[in-house]
Amino acid sequence: MDFANVKEVTYRVRRFDPDKDRAPHWEEYRIPYAPGMTVLDGLWLVKELHAPTLAWRSSCRMGVCGSCGMLINGSPRLGCNTQICELETTTVAVGPLPNFNIIKDLVPDLMPMLETHRQLLPFIVRDDHEEMEKPSGEFWQSPEELEHYLQFSYCIKCGCCMAACPTCATDPVYSGPMPLAQAHRYNSDSRDNGFTHRRQVLEGERGPWRCHFAGECSRVCPKGVDPAKAIQLMKRELVADYFKLREQRCPARLAETPKGVARREGIPEAPAPTVR
Amino acid sequence: MIRDAKLWTWHVLAGLVIFVFLGLHMLIMHLDDVVNIASLNPAGGHPIDWANVVARGKMIFFPVTYTVLLGAALFHGLYGLKNILFELNLGDGVKRATTVVLALLGLGLFVYGTWAAFASLALARSL
């Protein structure tokens, strides 16, 4: 569709106010269109011109914070990262992400997802507690070891994968693609030693076993992360562990402080830590 | 309670067993023109000719493989069915009941099928 002559677009917005409405409903608004407008820009115009009470989440406006995940013309996407013209229609249907409860209008309740994420220990777990509490240096990691988890670390927790997952749609027990992919991200990190802790959850019915490998999570991810792949790799790792075939590794050791080297001229000192 | 990691692993392994044994079934019963295993169809002719059926029935190999295939197929199928049912958002009590019913059903069918397989061996040897 040629957007050169388009002056107006229609927004169909799914509205729901738990204090007033018994069920969500659609409302339509006409707003002026300008080249380069994103779906999020359009929502601001809707709010300014027609519906001042319209609620959604957004922050960075550049596809980094993961706040503005919403259902745009039937597909979970980031509002800030979606140009209206790429939808190839002058009607933009915007709803809250499916598979989440709605707090208000386009605001999904992400807390269950984030709680599951928390339970899967999305951070480096090591046995050297003193080093973890008071870090004295950096851990060795080769570029090859970095490649094992790098793409999974691009996740911004927007929830689009959870909204697209057919298993999440019917099974409230299933952890979902985001928490599982992030658990795999840390299990694959050579600095981490938390596999046995995460395994407590992953071996059970909240683990990756209900994944049908539909692959929708990977298709909709705005950051190009492949959660479906992470889940299959996680299954392989857990099965290998069951048969005692998983490679036992020592977490990466601390890099020694370089000796016999001098600081180059002109490199400023790092600023003092803001948190002590 | 057996954890899902173990059940899923055995589900996949059971699928592999089914693949191998159904492949064997296809070779013996349907691809005899291509791969003719003479010792399994000693009378010649078609694999379901009476003489061949009796000859195979006298071999211990068949009841054993039938039993393994039955066990694998029952576990694979019933575990798959359990997963489908569990995705219907069942309550914990219904889930437990479903697991017990499917386990008892599988066990019952396995015992009955094993008895039938070895009874056919005794029957064939009496002919």
Please describe what this structure looks like:
The complex is a heterodimer of chains A (276) and B (127). Chain A has helices spanning 39-49, 111-119, 129-133, 143-147, 160-164, 166-170, 177-187, 195-202, 216-220, 227-242; strands at 8-15, 25-32, 69-72, 75-78, 91-95, 102-104, 107-108. Chain A has 276 residues and is an alpha+beta fold. Chain A has 2 domains: 8-108, Ubiquitin-like (UB roll); 111-242, Orthogonal Bundle (Fumarate Reductase Iron-sulfur Protein, Chain B, domain 2), CATH 1.10.1060. In chain A, helix 2 (111-119) packs parallel to helix 7 (177-187) and helix 7 packs across helix 10. Chain B has 127 residues and is an all-alpha fold. Chain B has a single domain (4-126), classed as 3 helical TM bundles of succinate and fumarate reductases. Chain B has helices at 4-30, 50-57, 61-86, 92-126. The longest helix of chain B is centred in the C-terminal third of the chain and has 35 residues, at 92-126. The radius of gyration of chain B is 18 Å and the shape is elongated. Classes of the chains: A alpha+beta (276), B mainly alpha (127). The A-B interface holds A 167, 170-173, 202-205, 207, 209-210, 235, 238-239, 242-243 and B 3-9, 12, 83, 86-89.
Can you describe this structure in just a few lines?
The complex is a heterodimer of chains A (276) and B (127). Chain A contains ten helices and seven strands.
